[in-house]
Amino acid sequence: MSVSPSPPFLIGASTKMYFSHEATVAWCTAVAAIARVHPAVTSGHARLFVVPGYLSIPAAHAVLGDLAMVGGQDIATEDSGPYTGEVSGAQLAEAGCALAEVGHAERRRLFGEDGPVVRAKTAAALRNGLTPLVCIGEPERWEPEAAADECIRQIDDALAQARTSGLSGAVVAAYEPQWAIGAERPAETEYIRAVCAPLREHVRSLTGHEGSVVVYGGSAGPGLLTRIADTVDGLFLGRFAHDPAAVEEILGEVSRLVEARAAGKIKAAGGAHV
Fold first, then answer.
1. In the chain, what percentage of residues exceed pLDDT 90?
2. What's the subunit arrangement here (predicted)?
């Protein structure tokens, strides 16, 4: 993919299991129409990604092309074999995926995905040339320093097997406070900033995983990026992105942030070379 002179903001969304295949294709078509002409995308200041349901991955890739990266909402720990119902990293890569989501709080809670599973899935993504989109976050509201320490522990633990296996590659750490997922509004601005600043510093220092970045999720929507842009590299959007107009609004935020940065009105904002 092409890289802009300054790192682009990474803006993405997961459709979870909300959309039918037809609705997913319609959403991707609408987002593609926006991205094709939006200055934040055409200038390279924003990089889009979408994580649709498995059945819609090929269609999403066909519709979006180079306008957005496509990812899988999950990944098998193994690359092939007698694993009924699983989808491997090799299959995701073959279908055009660039990303694989790992360790979302819902999968941890509903499907019992624990540390060993997250470690194995992170390694599987890297082994197959996919960027792991590793979801991390504290289970309840803590003091920001404690939350940051927990998130750092979680990202290090997720990478433990990959390091043992000699695997390298950039990682996207998706900070989603579990108590904010599905909430009416995201965590408070200063709370997010206090957690993400040390988390991003740590993620950027990961040896063998150069280019790794931090995005914020957890009820993220329009207006948030402007308030936290100097401590994150982008946003991982949920239901607020179901309306393509919200994606367009956030891309407008990116353009305004870049203009303000160029004018020296704000200090260097985040961005990602993923």
1. 84
2. Homodimer.
